[in-house]
Amino acid sequence: MKATADQSPEFSAPQRTAVFSMIAAAFLVALKLVTGLITGSLALIAEAAHSGTDLVAAILTFFAVRVAGRPADREHPYGHGKAEHLAALAEGAFLVILSLAVVYASVRRLAGSSSHEVDTAWWAFVVLGVVLLVDVSRAVISWRASKRYDSAALAANALHFASDFAGSLAVLVGLVLVSLGVGSADSVAALLVAGLVIAAAASLMRESVGVLMDRSSEETQEIARAAIERAEPTVDLRRLRVRETGGRAFVDAVLAVSPDAAVGQGHAVADNVERALEEALPRSDVTIHIEQGESRDLRERATGAALSVRRVREVHNVRSVVVDGGRIEMSLHAKLPADQTLADAHAIADEIERAVRSAIPQVGRVHVHLEPLDGAGTATAPSSDEIARYEAAIAQAVRDVTGRPPREVGLHLEARGLVAYVSVEVDGSSTLAEAHEVAKHVEARAEAALPVFSEVVVHTEPA
């Protein structure tokens, strides 16, 4: 089947590697079993059984890779990556059972309970040479594919093929020794092959169980932690959980931001951390939960507490004072929807007071000023004659305060009256507090010169 832009190929690259492994394993099973039966070599029969398990493993890997490659669905929201590790676990158990059978037969032969002559014909050595070449080639191919596609099942195949090579080498040594008159060498080689298989199977099963039980990799955990610290060094990382399956990392992190941070600011922090984690751990699936952090600043704590009341939309002008006796009193302005009834708004104000006192126990009284949330309005421009007169008055007010002309002046006739929007230049080295004082002076002069203004909004920019 030819792949198109809308179709995926019938077999992916990892699946083609698994198919190659199946063909190679079937060939080796037949070759080793026939040679072992003809020569009477228990070691070769053990190797045939070993390759038989590899054939089963390759079949399992083929289907596991196909299943693991499926996208996430409603029943499997985290994907199907664990299918590879289930296959690897079944394969490991199968390897152990057959290896124990080989051990039993080898021990019986060494104990003299059964005897059999081993034929060391020259062609048996040729067969072993072919087997060694096949073992090396398929181990290298599977190992490279496992690294390229980050596949646990293909890595397991590479490990088994490497153990096959070691086992075949042991069989070759055993046959050489048998040809030199050491009759027990074949059984000893069979035991060695069985030991290699059991060791490899135990390692494979341990790794697969770790993945299936969501054991966290310390290395991946540290990579994720470092990525978060680089992206947002000021946030508090309260929890980090990482698990890996199917070549993907699933990261779950809880971050604490300033208690007065707006929802949008918290979301921006989460987006930044997600990007950093996806760069550090490609193909990762990241979930970020944002919480309110701790702060010693009374204003931040009070703002955060007030914003935690669900119907509060905006909090500003938060102030605290120490009154007689060392008591702290706080005042703040809170904006609510304009269509809220006074009774409902007063109930929300009570919630705000309780929330602030709960967050800051040393606060005695909390004074809440309620304001309606402004909606979108409409505006028109004054007449051309008025514009020239108003702009001249504003420009003079700005020059009187800053010594510079305004950078921009905008005039609107709104429902509340005439509003001026003015941009002025202030020394860039000034503090925000100093720039704010300049803006206040400009507003006062402009409103004094033209009482017709209902508001003058001054925006300060560095000169």
TrEMBL record:
Membrane-topology descriptor: Multi-pass membrane protein
Compartments in which it is found: Membrane
Segments traversing the membrane: 18-38, 44-65, 86-107, 122-141, 161-182, 188-205
Gene3D superfamilies the UniProt entry points to: Cation efflux protein transmembrane domain (1.20.1510.10), Cation efflux protein, cytoplasmic domain (3.30.70.1350)
Residue ranges of domain Cation efflux protein transmembrane in the record: 20-213
Keywords: Membrane, Transmembrane, Transmembrane helix, Transport
GO MF annotation terms: cadmium ion transmembrane transporter activity; ferrous iron transmembrane transporter activity; zinc efflux antiporter activity
Domain (Cation efflux protein cytoplasmic) ranges: 218-292, 299-372, 421-462
Keyword Repeat: no
GO biological process: one example: intracellular zinc ion homeostasis
Record-linked Pfam families: Cation_efflux, ZT_dimer
Gene Ontology cellular component annotations, sorted alphabetically: plasma membrane
Keyword Transmembrane helix attached: yes
Protein name per UniProt: Unannotated protein
Species classification: unclassified sequences, metagenomes, ecological metagenomes
